[in-house]
Write a structure and sequence with these properties.
Order of helices and strands: EHEEHHHEHHEHEHEHEHEHEHHEEE
Strand order of the largest sheet: 5-4-6-7-1-8-13-12-9-10-11
Distance between the termini: 16 Å
Shape: globular
Structural class: alpha/beta
Strand content: 15-25%
Helix content: 25-40%
Largest sheet: 11 strands, mixed
Number of strands: 13
Radius of gyration: 20 Å
Number of helices: 13
CATH architecture of the largest domain: 3-Layer(aba) Sandwich
C-alpha cells in the first residue's frame, strides 16, 4: 500500500475563493452567510444562505454569467456547465496550479478525477420546462450534460483532458467524502498516481428551498448567528454552494517532482445507519462505526486524534447524534479528548460539497498550525458535556485530524489526515 498526500487545494466558497482568504476566515472566524433573496417567491421561509463572492450565476445562460477574470474558460466549455460546474472548474484550475501540475501530468493515464454533486436541479428544471413549452427539438442541446448528477465528471474530464479513472459520487452530504475515500484507495493500491477530487453544489433557489419543506433549515434572519452547531437553541442549518478541489497524490510521485505537501491522507472508514431515510441514528451508531473503522484502517489510536472537524450542521437531531458518536469513540476509549468544532458555523452546509470543503480546511489547518473554533455558540448544548468543543480558533498545530460526514439514508464517512514529515 502506497502513502497518499495532499498536494493542491482550490476554493470557491462562502468564506473565500483561495487558500489565503479561507485560512484568514478560519483563523478569525469570519463567516460567509448573507441574506437570501428569492425573486420568485419573496414569502418563502429561507432568509439566509452561504454567499459565493465574485461569481454571478443568475439565470440559465452560461454566457451571461460572470466570474473572476483570472479564469479563462472557452465558450464551448462554458456552455456545458451548471452554476456549480463553473465553481468547480475555477476551483480545479486553482488546485492544479497550486499543485504545480504540468499538462503532461494532468492529461496522463495515471491521473484521474472523482467528483461529487447532486447535479443541478435548477438547470434540469429550466431545460425540461423549455422542452415542454417549445418542443423537443427546441431543447437546449447540452441540457443533459449541464444538469444531471454526473455533470461535473462529464465536463471536467473533457475540459481537462483527463485520461485516468473518473467517477461521480452521489450519497448526499457524504458524497465528496466517498469520493476522497475511493480516490485514496485507487492511489494506495497503485492504480493511479494522483486523483483530482472535486465537490460542488449550485447553492441557488432550487438546491436550497426544498430543504425548507423538510423543516431542516433555520428560520433565523440574522446571518451573524443563523448557523450555530452545538448551540442549545439551534433550529436548523444554512445552505451554501460553491466548490472545493483537492489533489491527492502518491507520496513518492509527489516527492519525485518536488511538490509542496500539505498533509498526509492516512485513510478512511465508512458505515451505514440502516435506520431512517432522512435522519441520523439517535445514538450515532453508524458514524461511530465509520470512525472506528478509519482508526483501525490507519492504525491510529483515538488518543492520537488532536482535532475533529465535525459534520454538525446545526440541526437538533443531527448534532446530537454526532455528539453521542464522538462520546462513544473518544470518552469510552481511554478518555481521549480531542478539540472539536464545526466549520459549518462559518460556511453553512455545502451538502455534497461539505466533505471535500472540510477536508481541505483540515489540511490547511494542519499545514498552517491552527484549530478552527466552532463559532456562534451562545449556550452550549448540555449533550456536549465531556466533549472538548472549542469556540475560538487555537493557534496550535494538530498532528492528526478526523473529519466526519453524514448523509441521507445514514451514510457515514470518516477521513483521517496528519502532519506530513519526510520519512
Amino acid at each position: 500500500m502506497r502513502n497518499v498526500v495532499v498536494t493542491g487545494l482550490g476554493f470557491a466558497t462562502s468564506i473565500g475563493n483561495n487558500a489565503s482568504a479561507v485560512l484568514d476566515s478560519l483563523q478569525n472566524l469570519k463567516h460567509g452567510i448573507a441574506p437570501f433573496v428569492d425573486a420568485i417567491d419573496p414569502s418563502n421561509p429561507v432568509h439566509v444562505a452561504g454567499n459565493i463572492q465574485d461569481f454571478n450565476t443568475t439565470g440559465y445562460d452560461p454566457e451571461d454569467w460572470t466570474y473572476p477574470e483570472e479564469y479563462n474558460i472557452r465558450r464551448e466549455v462554458l456552455r456545458g456547465l451548471s452554476p456549480h460546474g463553473l465553481y468547480a472548474l475555477c476551483a480545479t484550475k486553482q488546485a492544479i496550479a497550486d499543485a504545480s501540475l504540468t499538462e503532461d501530468l494532468l492529461s496522463n493515464p495515471s491521473t484521474g478525477l472523482y467528483t461529487a454533486s447532486a447535479g443541478s436541479a435548477g438547470c434540469l428544471s429550466h431545460h425540461m420546462e423549455r422542452m415542454n413549452e417549445r418542443g423537443v427539438l427546441r431543447c437546449y442541446p447540452l441540457a443533459i450534460v449541464a444538469s444531471i448528477a454526473g455533470t461535473l465528471t462529464f465536463n471536467l474530464v473533457a475540459a481537462l483532458k483527463i485520461l485516468g479513472s473518473s467517477c461521480g459520487f452521489v450519497s448526499a452530504c457524504a458524497s465528496s467524502g466517498h469520493a476522497l475515500g475511493y480516490a485514496f484507495d485507487e492511489i494506495a493500491t497503485g492504480r493511479q498516481d494522483r486523483i483530482i477530487v472535486v465537490g460542488a453544489e449550485d447553492g441557488n433557489r432550487e438546491s436550497i428551498i426544498p430543504f425548507a419543506g423538510m423543516r431542516a433549515l433555520t428560520s433565523s434572519k440574522d446571518p451573524n448567528t443563523a448557523s450555530r452547531p452545538f448551540d442549545k437553541n439551534r433550529d436548523g442549518f444554512v445552505c451554501t454552494g460553491g466548490a472545493t478541489t483537492l489533489i491527492l497524490e502518491d507520496e513518492s510521485s509527489a516527492q519525485a517532482r518536488g511538490a509542496r505537501i500539505y498533509a498526509r491522507f492516512n485513510g478512511w472508514g465508512q458505515a451505514s445507519d440502516g435506520y431512517n431515510v432522512a435522519i441520523s441514528h439517535p445514538e450515532g451508531d453508524g458514524l461511530a462505526r465509520a470512525i472506528n473503522l478509519a482508526l483501525k484502517a490507519t492504525g491510529i489510536n483515538a488518543q492520537d486524534i488532536d482535532y475533529v472537524n465535525a459534520h454538525a450542521t446545526s440541526t437538533s437531531i443531527g448534532d446530537t447524534s454526532e455528539m453521542r458518536a464522538l462520546k462513544s469513540v473518544f470518552l469510552n476509549n481511554g478518555g481521549a479528548s480531542p478539540a472539536i468544532s464545526s466549520t459549518k458555523a462559518l460556511t453553512g452546509h455545502g451538502l455534497s460539497l461539505a466533505s471535500a470543503m472540510e477536508a481541505a480546511f483540515c489540511t490547511l489547518s494542519i499545514h498552517h498550525g491552527i484549530m478552527p473554533g466552532s463559532a456562534h455558540i451562545e449556550t452550549l448544548d448540555p449533550e456536549a458535556e465531556g466533549l472538548n468543543i472549542i469556540q475560538e480558533t487555537r493557534p496550535e498545530a494538530p498532528k492528526t485530524v478526523l473529519s466526519n460526514s453524514s448523509g441521507f439514508g445514514g451514510a457515514n464517512v470518516a477521513l483521517i489526515f496528519s502532519k506530513y514529515s519526510n520519512p
